[in-house]
Design a protein that fits this description.
The protein is mostly helical and 175 residues long. The chain is 79% helix and 0% strand.
Length: 175
């Protein structure tokens, strides 16, 4: 396990050889799932939500979120000609989550993880480029597309809320 934790930190530092090693190591898959689930446990402990149901919620959310997020990026990389299998892509992504264990520290951990999350854009970019063997431009598009879709959805939701407030709630004051 220690080997995979060290590799996770190396991936987080964008070590290309460790990204390739993680992608090609089928023995690491179960450790990657464990690392991701421990992130959920760390988040539950760090947020001081220690009931069994909340612990299960955080662990399952981390696991499902990691799988779904990786699936979206993997599918987009595939559309741009990516060469990796899902597990080859998931292993280095999931292994790099070891850094998010910092969320176990109440208050400070979640704040630091927000900053770390910004660096994960670079980690994802490197892993997409290296593992899927895509150009930097195509790898950037793989990351940019979901961001733009989420931004468009957020803007539409804000506009919809604004329309509701000005139309329906505003009419209550006019009567």
């Amino acid at each position: 396990m220690i080997e995979y934790i060290k590799r996770g930190f190396a991936i987080f530092r964008l070590d290309e050889s460790e990204i390739k090693n993680a992608a090609k190591d089928p023995n690491s898959t179960s450790y990657v799932f464990l690392i991701v689930m421990l992130v959920g446990a760390a988040q539950a402990i760090g947020s001081l939500k220690l009931s069994p149901s909340m612990l299960a919620f955080y662990i399952s959310s981390a696991f499902i979120g990691a799988i779904l997020g990786t699936m979206v990026l993997h599918f987009l990389a595939w559309l741009f000609g990516g060469k990796a299998t899902f597990l080859e892509f998931f292993r280095p992504i999931g292994m790099s989550y070891v850094v998010m264990w910092i969320t176990i520290i109440p208050v400070i951990g979640p704040a630091i993880s927000g900053v770390i999350g910004i660096w994960y854009v670079a980690v994802n970019l490197a892993v997409i480029r290296i593992v899927h063997r895509l150009s930097l431009g195509k790898a950037a598009l793989v990351i940019l597309i979901p961001v733009l879709i989420a931004l468009a959805i957020a803007i539409l939701m804000i506009l919809g809320y604004w329309k509701f407030v000005t139309t329906y709630l505003g009419s209550l004051y006019l009567e």
